[in-house]
Amino acid sequence: MIKVNLLDSATEGPSSFAAVEARVATPRAQGRLMLLAVVALALLAMGFDWQTARSARAEAQAQLEQQQRIAAQMEVVKREQADLEKKTQEVQARIEAIKHLRDSQQGPVAVLTAINDRLPKLENFRLSTIEQKGSDLTISGDSPNEDAVTQFGRSLEFSSGLFTNLSIEIKRDILKAPEGVPVPVEDKDAPKPQTVTFTIKCKYAPAAPPSQPAPANNKPAAPPANQVAQNN
């Protein structure tokens, strides 16, 4: 018959736990445990810090790439805008050149037409030079008498503002026969024929072309706010 001593088995358990507790309670063991705990916490902190830095770096890299794409798009837009402004300036310069050429071609014609319409109907009334510098106009010529010059000056002055600031300089000279034409013998006491040389200075201000009226709006006018629709 087999006999088991249960008392010895029951008393062995507490003694083994006591041995482990005694080992752990030693200062060296506690120091090792503390060191392991500190190392574990440090590793956890380092891992968390590394993961956080990695996420922040990835986010910063993504933002940097996005900003670079936006900067590249803005650079393309700036180049297109610069090209458009350059083309606009070139077109505007061409328009100004064409306008200046047209004005320079039409200006003298308009001046000559306006002056010709106001010339006296005299055979010996003639113009020698017409000089225009901007709005300043100088007309030189000669006339058989002073009245014709005065009449011509008045026709220029009363031109509805086309010719303004008018001044007339008159000089009387003895009329000389052209070269090669024989001069008849005249009485010394008889008055010699004279000619009136004149210079007229004025301002030329052509009328501006009329502006085109705005297109009429054919849309029916909206009824007043207080108008009430009536049903038949």
Number of strands: 4
Query: How many domains comprise the coordinates?
Result: 2
What is the helix tally? Answer: 3
Order of helices and strands: HHEEHEE
Radius of gyration: 56 Å
Give the overall shape. Answer: rod-shaped
Identify low-pLDDT runs.
Answer: 224-232
What can you see in these coordinates?
With 232 residues, this protein is an alpha+beta fold. The chain is rod-shaped, with a radius of gyration of 56 Å. The protein starts with 5 loop residues before the first helix and ends in a 28-residue tail after the last strand. A four-stranded antiparallel beta sheet has the order 1-2-4-3, with helices on one face. It contains three helices and four strands; from the N terminus they run ααββαββ. The chain folds into two domains: 17-109; 118-177 and 193-204, Gyrase A, domain 2 (2-Layer Sandwich), CATH 3.30.1360. The model is unreliable at 224-232 (pLDDT under 50). 52% of the residues lie in helices and 17% in strands. It has helices spanning 6-24, 27-116, 146-157; strands at 126-133, 136-143, 163-174, 194-204. Strand 1 (126-133) and strand 2 (136-143) form a beta hairpin.
